Amino acid sequence: MIQRIIKNEWLQYSRDKRLKWLICFLLLISAIALWHQLDFQSQLQTTRKEAQQKSREEWLSQELKHPHIAAHFGNYAYKKPSLLHCFDPGLSIYTGTSVYMEPHRQNDLLFSKGQESDTGLRFGWLSPALVCQLLVSLLIIVLSFGSINGEQEKGTLPLLLSQGISFRQLLFAKTFAVFLVFEIFITVYLLITAIAAAWLLSTDLIPGSLFYLWLVYSAYCLIWSLLGVYVSSKIKHAGGAIAVLLLCWMFTNILLPRIVANVAENVFPLTTNYQFRRQIADAIEKGLDGHNTQSERAKQIEQELLSKYKVDSVEQLPFNFEGYIMQQGEEYSSKVYDKFWGEVFLSLKKQKQLQSLLGLGSPFVALRNISMATSNASLETEIDFQEQAEQYRRDFVQELNNDMRDNSAYGSFNSYKVSKDKYHSIGDVEIKNHPLAWSFPHIVPDNVGLICWLLVLIILLYKRGNAFSYR
After folding, report:
1. Coil, helix or strand for 101?
2. Does residue 168 have a pLDDT over 80?
3. pLDDT value, residue 266
4. Is 294 strand, coil or helix?
5. Are 148 and 174 in contact (CB under 8 A)?
6. Residue 102 pLDDT more than 80?
7. End-to-end CA distance of the chain, in Å?
8. Residue 91 CB contacts under 8 Å (≥ 6 apart), including other chains
9. What digits encode the pLDDT tens for the residues 412-443?
10. Is residue 110 pLDDT above 60, yes or no?
11. Which 3 state secondary structure label does DSSP give 2?
12. For residue 256, what are the CA distances in angstroms to 239, 245, 261, 263?
């Protein structure tokens, strides 16, 4: 009997011209979003490959020079694109795609799409994920708001119940009728996106991440289907039901995410870029404790080395003191950057944790966080990219400083030149993307939130089936 109800609902959908136009609109927007994202990621990948190859060639072909000057030639690290970026680009749109690496400083990410775009980007980047998160939930409302009260207004509800189906079964049949329409859409859309991305970007499919993404988006569709049918069963008139559902949609998908983001920013504020850079400069110059200046640290290191090697001057040391002190300065500045960047990263993580907690009232917030994490475009993956690039920067700067220390004489800054082999000994940047298992611990609260939404709505619909009486 439930199957007959579902088939009958689908028959009604096929006869409603308004729904046909809405479905056509969904398919058109989905196709545009997919084409837009595939085109963007394809161009971005081509640009990244060309830029990284050119950067490597320039590094290897630079003229022979002093190791420290060669280090200042610098290098670029580029994010490694993920196949699922074609579905959900996440924070990568806003944080940038590359970072310039040089001695003495840890630079910010460069060339984000957000820097190039107008204020329209604040409303979201057009992508398949945005279509599934916002547009699909809105269309579920359109299909479900009159599912029960519409039968009552037409007087067909008693006829349906007289066929031997309970009201509870009717509620769940109506829910699955709506859900299956969009479940088919989500399944096909994800598969097309993944296959097209794998072909266009010449990369392998990620079955585990793709299945998990399908699972959470399916849960999201089921949540809105349950909510739509429940409200339709509680509110007598269809006009009132759609008004309530649209208010729920606006609150959970538009207002609440903005509110929780503002609350998180106020509770865990970030320092301004000027203050951040000023703090770092002061800490390097005056010391982390404010009482150990750069010159005092250098003098202390010099005295310790003279005492250790029992010599009278740095010229008598068995290595080039200039290279040694250069590396000691790098290591101290790294401690400074670790401290202040660590504070920034900690604040950002606390902001996200608070948003996830406050966002339990919105399945959209939970889905967005899970989707970005699964697509390797979350806060944690952006921080990880910064840390991988920074580790590479420290390694290649240290290698050149050590070459200066071990192979040059004191005072030979203007005469000593590094060998060509040294350029080749420094490998190219290799940024690694992590599997889903690495990201999963960061989205446990969001998974719990979605599960809670599902359970609460299933219980409410179940109880509604028991409490029904003709009105």
Report:
1. strand
2. yes
3. 92
4. helix
5. yes
6. yes
7. 24
8. 372, 377, 378, 379, 382
9. 888 888 888 888 888 888 888 888 899 999 99
10. no
11. helix
12. 24, 15, 8, 10
Residue 48 in contact with residue 78, Cβ under 8 Å? yes
Question: What six digits make up the tokens of 144?
Answer: 């479900």
Q: CB 152: neighbour CB atoms within 10 A?
A: 18
CA torsion angle 171 174 177 179 (round to 10): -60
Give the DSSP per-residue string, 76-98. Answer: EEEPPP-GGGGT--TTHHHH-SE
What global pTM score does this model have? 0.89
State which H helix or E strand residue 445 sits in: helix 444-467
Give the list of residues 6+ apart from residue 373 with CB closer than 8 angstroms, or none.
Answer: 380, 381, 439, 440, 442, 443
Closest of 270, 273, 269 to residue 108, by C-alpha: 273
Among 323, 297, 321, CA closest to 311 = 321
Q: What is the mean pLDDT of residues 192-217?
A: 88
Which tens digit of pLDDT belongs to each residue from 57-92? Answer: 888 888 888 888 888 888 888 888 788 889 999 888
The pLDDT assigned to 218 comes to 96
Residue in this structure with the two tokens 């611990």, named with its chain if needed: 441
Q: Mapping DSSP to helix (H, G, I), strand (E, B) and coil, where does residue 105 land? A: strand
